[in-house]
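Q: Structure tokens for this one, please.
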Amino acid sequence: MPKARAAALEALRLDDHLGDAHVALGDVRLFFDWTGWSRIEYQRALDIEPENEGALRGRARLLAKAGRFDEGISLLMRLMERDPTAVGPAWQLVSTYLDARRFDAALVLLRGLEARDVEAGQRPASHSPRLRWTQAMRGRAAGGRQA
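A: Here is the predicted structure, written as tokens:
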């Protein structure tokens, strides 16, 4: 991460009005520093570009990390409504559902992503392990045995 931090800081040194550079620094700070700093960077990115997807996804990550799952989910759903073909927000929404232990919602979304891949003529291999894992976790949470 030192290289990512250095690159983001250098980009901001050259031009402090680059929303994506603030997002990159926010991501570094979210995972390796204090989350308050990442919140500041995401907000700076949103001040520059109010609809910056990376900043909105970063904010959703922060909300989920704080246990404010409904707000994070709402933000990610807004991103998905804006661009239904976007993969990043969809995968992040799956992860947020899993963190919130909302296994049924995660399964519905995973099955939808899998169907979308099949419809597009793609092999949904990346979905299958997550789908099986989510089904097993759902069964475990319901008191059943792991599949």
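A few notes: The helical segments are 2-14, 19-32, 35-48, 53-65, 69-82, 87-99, 103-119, 127-141. Residues 62 and 104 are 23 Å apart (CA to CA).
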